[in-house]
TrEMBL record:
Transmembrane stretches, start-end: none
Names of required cofactors: pyridoxal 5'-phosphate
Gene symbol of the encoding locus: cobC
Organism of provenance: Streptomyces gibsoniae
The protein's name in its UniProt record: Aminotransferase
Keyword rRNA processing set for record: no
Keywords: Aminotransferase, Lyase, Pyridoxal phosphate, Transferase
Enzyme class name: transferase
Length: 357
């Protein structure tokens, strides 16, 4: 692991949806980390029911209170956003920092937003030989903004909460992207709801587990002063009425129970995927383990060619070389049901053979 300030050649604006945007209808999607078969029918009904209120300006008070109650926080510690992506832009625009650092490999939008706001961004690169684990001592002491994902996209590493808390300092903002935490059984290692960590800002997304990427809904948890700063940087009515209805519904007891069940199912399906990948052997394919998110990162020779052959065979996967700290040997695979995984592993075996010719 080391720190660098060079922006590098990575395309920070490339995301998984690009893999399926043009001919996605013909592809089985393992590129986008949104849970399959979502949103559920009951959630679609809630969203549809909100459409009668479209003539009025959005009122986020009920949704904000519901999110606050879900985490045991006062409403002053909650800000609803148009997905976690908007939160990264708000942080970059509203906070006045000197030495921002992003821990990579991870979701690239935080760094892109900071760069767009004019910041020179330092990178702490986690290494494969350390299983992409976090060593808090390697984050520069002078960093006054640190961004880390947990569990981390694309490595699927779940960092211990205690290790992340070690990054907290007086005068430092510590941003923890927990967009995939609700896919972790029991949400172990979560920091959402903690008020004892100085400078802590936790981001959550409701688009992954509930299949709402097209609706854009997420939220920020932080101290009231930081929330007020971020809110001032938002436009008026930033979250639509249907998104607010979805937010309130997705933090209800019924939804939390369904999400918990889905997390266990994802864990079982991920174990099935990893078992299939292990059949290729460590010389042919390496899996980053333990994987704890709804996706798996793999390394294999000729990965770019393998990815192209997979497309010809009907499967889209996420290229890894747009993530700082990774190169063209890496691919990210979203976890899917066992039947889809079995078909995919067969296709991967064929793609690896074709790439080796």
């Amino acid at each position: 692991m080391h720190t660098e300030h060079d922006g590098g050649p990575h395309d920070l604006r490339h995301h998984g949806d690009a893999e399926v945007r043009d001919d996605g209808a013909a592809l089985t999607d393992l590129a986008v980390n949104v849970r399959a078969d979502t949103p559920p029918a009951w959630l679609r009904e809630v969203i549809a029911g909100s459409l009668d209120g479209l003539a009025a300006y959005p009122d986020g008070r009920a949704a904000r209170a519901a999110v606050a109650a879900r985490h045991g926080l006062p409403v002053e510690r909650v800000l609803l956003t148009a997905g976690a992506a908007e939160a990264f832009v708000l942080l970059a625009r509203a906070l006045k920092v000197r030495q921002p650092v992003v821990v990579h490999p991870q979701f690239t939008e935080p760094e892109a937003a900071l760069r767009d706001a004019g910041y020179a961004v330092g990178r702490v690169l986690l290494r494969r030989r350390d299983d992409f684990g976090l060593d808090p001592s390697l984050v520069p002491e002078d960093a006054d903004l640190v961004v880390i994902g947990n569990p981390t996209n694309p490595t699927s590493v779940l960092h211990p909460a205690a290790s992340i808390v070690e990054l907290a300092r007086p005068g430092r903002t510590l941003v923890v992207d927990e967009a995939f935490m609700d896919a972790v059984p029991g949400e172990r290692e979560a920091l959402a709801g903690r008020t004892d960590v100085p400078g802590l800002v936790v981001l959550r997304s409701l688009t992954k587990t509930w299949g709402l990427a097209g609706l854009r809904i997420g939220y920020v948890l932080a101290d009231p002063g930081t929330i007020a700063e971020l809110e001032r940087a938002q436009p008026l009515w930033p979250v639509s009425t249907p998104a607010l209805a979805a937010a309130e519904a997705c933090v209800s007891p019924r939804a939390l129970a369904e999400a918990a069940h889905a997390a266990h199912r994802v864990a079982a399906d991920r174990a099935h995927l990893v078992a299939g990948l292990r059949e290729f052997g460590p010389d042919g394919l390496q899996v980053v383990e333990p994987a704890e998110g709804p996706f798996v990162l793999i390394r294999l020779a000729r990965a770019a060619a393998v990815r192209r052959h997979l497309r010809d065979l009907g499967f889209a996967v996420r290229r890894g070389d747009t993530f700082p700290g990774l190169n063209e040997e890496w691919l990210r695979l979203a976890v899917r049901d066992r039947t889809t995984v079995n078909r995919f592993v067969q296709a991967l075996d064929r793609a690896v053979t074709l790439a080796g010719r």
